[in-house]
Amino acid sequence: MKTNDLILQTTTKVVLFIIILFSVYIFFAGHYTPGGGFVGGLLTSGAIILLTLAFDMKTVKQILPFNYIYMAATGLLFAGGTAAGSLLFNVPFLTHAFGDVNIPILGETALHTATLFDLGVFLVVVGVTMTIIQTIGVDE
Amino acid sequence: MYRLYLGEASSVHEIKGGHDLSLLHLAIISPFLFAIIIPILYKLFRQVHTGWFVLPLPILLFSYFISFISSTSNQEIITESVPWIPALGVDFIAKVDGLGLLFALLITGIGSLVVLYSIYYLSKDKEKLNTFYVYLLLFMGAMLGVVLSDNLIVLYTFWEFTSFSSFLLIGYWYDREKSRYGAQKSMLITVLGGLSMLGGIILLYIMTGTFNISEIIEQAAAISVDPLFIPALICILLGAFTKSAQFPFHIWLPDAMEAPTPVSAYLHSATMVKAGIYLVARMTPVFASEGLWVWLIAGFGIVTLFWGSFNAVKQTDLKAILAFSTISQLGMIMSLLGLGAAALHYDDIESSFFGAATTAAVFHLFNHATFKGSLFMVAGIVDHETGTRDIRKLGGLMNFMPITFTLAIIGTFSMAGLPPFNGFLSKEMFFTGMVRVLELNIFNFETWGMLFPVIAWIASVFTFLYSMILVFKTFTGKYKPEQLEKKPHEAPIGMLISPIILASLVIIIGFFPNILSNTIISPALESILPNNTIDVHISFWHGPTPELFMTIGVIALGILLFLTLPKWRKVYDLFPTKLTLNRLYDGGLAFTQKAANKITKTYMNGSIRSYLVYIFAFFIVILGTTLAVKNAFKLDTSNVSSIGFYEILLALAIMIGSISILFVKSRMTAIILLGSVGYTVSLFYVLFRAPDLALTQLVIETISVALFLLCFYHLPKELNKERMSFKLTNAIISIGVGAMVTLIALSAHSNKLFDSIAEYYIENTYTEAAGKNMVNVILVDFRGFDTLFEITVLTIAALGIFAMIKLRMGGGKKNENK
């Protein structure tokens, strides 16, 4: 199906970046305010889906040449790795570590291994939704 | 830097902190660890045979275990313990006693020789050496774990690992149909036995309250009257019999010969198949008080001994002869262990009398590993150098392969029980044990016990016979070059080293058997028959005893039968070809598959609508019954907040949306209506101040609408125009689901059985996990396990969809081509 919806395409070009930026914000903000890896991942997939609707699957694959199955697997590795990493420090599986670090420009920043875990969730969500959508929609 | 967020977890951890992995544990798991780097070594050094990297490990382990001999021969038992699942009483207790050490030495010793042999047997250019050595190391570690664990659950885990690695090794050449068949067969039979063994272990736990063998042995007298005692005994024996290929479970072993020959030499003659014997020996102190134990083991053993040797004679494949020979020899060791168990009933001098049978079992176990290992390697050499293992095609190889011929002579003569080899000594001891059955006066042995020496003698005649066939049909007689694929010549020296070492052991032990008595045999006997001091002294010449005449008789009749073989061979044709155990196995397997298919097809009809009907019907019936039986339905309006204007408005919107879905004709409209319902739900979350949920619901709704649109492509088109007919069952089920959910929601709100966990999260979210967004902290931290598994499930689902659609499209293309 050829789409030639100029308004949608032009809007998408602008909105896409806003959504993706927002999803990144939501991802990082998750620990203190509403958000997190799951919603962040969904928002990113939403942005890519919007792109797919406005253009077509082929164009999107050219712009974002990711193998989404690998992405999901990488996400699982992140989550599982963060969880298993605690074993190296002789504490139970899935124990998170956190602390405040003074980073030059950003100042006092809280760092938390849960963010790595959440990054895993983020990647899995994007990988899974995009795998499903690209597989199902591949014929169009 | 890190802090624990769960107080309880940290205290549990401190208790275990005291124990660390000992060197002994490390030795057991070292093959597993080493297996991880094998593929890397294989990739990095393609020009070097991977076997050279593997070889040092079993040699190191062998020398490590040798160092234990001084302690075990002083009746010391080395025990090292590491908690594994302390809550269930499962600790990884590594224990080195005489019996375990004997096996550990066999595993690592034969393992070293087999690895060396495999370096020359498997070509580094043609074979996938990385997988081969990974499997082999997996097996080695698992087998060490079986024989050195004092905890039955740990033992069971390793036990199944040996079945698993055996499966992988038999199926190593998986492009061959027969390899796959053999692998599956061995897996099904040994795992069946393994599961039954697990049942036996659990029964033992119920009786004794412990999984540790040494503690179970202490309670042996107390549990022998328990009604569960006999079932436990039978379950454990089933595990041992399947693993050690005892009649009627022996059928997997001949098919396992599809594995590469080094594997057959290692797993299917020297070590893995002896795991069942190990288990019987290990559990003897627990069960020996029961007559059934003695009868079952001795009975099945002697039948296996006869059946194996009788069938070995009719085989034409070298490895098939060796396979049936192994079955028969395993039966022999089994029967000796069974009779030896009777020794525990005699506390006085006589114990050494019957203990002789156990001594013979342990001694023969060792001897069998040496001569059968070398014979398998010889068979492998013949196969490798001539291209066939069929004795009808072989003949006259003596002149081409003199060293191999000598090795074959040593191995087969030892197997046949001829002096001066070690097999002669253990065969004599075997006869001693069998003849003494006549003196047993317990468990009704006075009557049927007569059969034991008779069957043993007949079986030995057949053993002699197939041994002779094995060596003389291959190496003497007419040389038939036209039937061989390659021109035969002597094997390279590297391939000969391992069988030469084994054959020298056969001779050395034949002449000096007592080097084993106090170092290996006595300590092992100590473990099988505790509290009995048996003075082991093995000698060549006993004087003109019945045993000697039995041996002479075996040789005389054996030679006669060998010379007249063509005349009486037809005896084997008398056996029915249709009523074999193999056909029973094949038929059973085919029937199971067919029946399972039939049953599955009755309800898996491919229509998603029917599946939803099943799921929702179960949902209604199970939850409805539970609600009714537990009398759980309750309506409590005292704690209900007032309903505002917005709530009513949103509820109405949802209702209108859902009901109109039923009446619209176009799919597009239906999906948009469904989307509107979802968005309204997210507005509810906004109303109830759950921004996280609202956000997620909004995005999810958007994505699922997009997904639905994409799915249009895959749905049949004509349905669009038809008016959906009204179906009563569907209506009942959908109304039922709605009613059930409402009822449960109301009851859940009205029944407050305990305080909400919310307070805990409110208090601890910031202090324990340093986060302010409680929902997110629960997701990634407090209930991180849930999330971890949820994303795993998501990934699996995505892979499933990917595979399903890609496969279907691939299949469609194929059909078009036709």
From TrEMBL, chain A:
Topology within the bilayer: Multi-pass membrane protein
Keyword tRNA processing assigned: no
Transmembrane residue ranges: 12-32, 38-56, 68-89, 109-133
Name of one Pfam family that matches: MnhB
Ligase is among the record's keywords: no
Cell location: Cell membrane
Main localization of the protein described in the UniProt heading: membrane
Tree of life domain: Bacteria
NCBIfam families: PRK12573.1
Family of the protein in this entry: Belongs to the CPA3 antiporters (TC 2.A.63) subunit B family.
Name of the molecule in the record: Multicomponent Na+:H+ antiporter subunit B
Organism, scientific name: Cytobacillus eiseniae
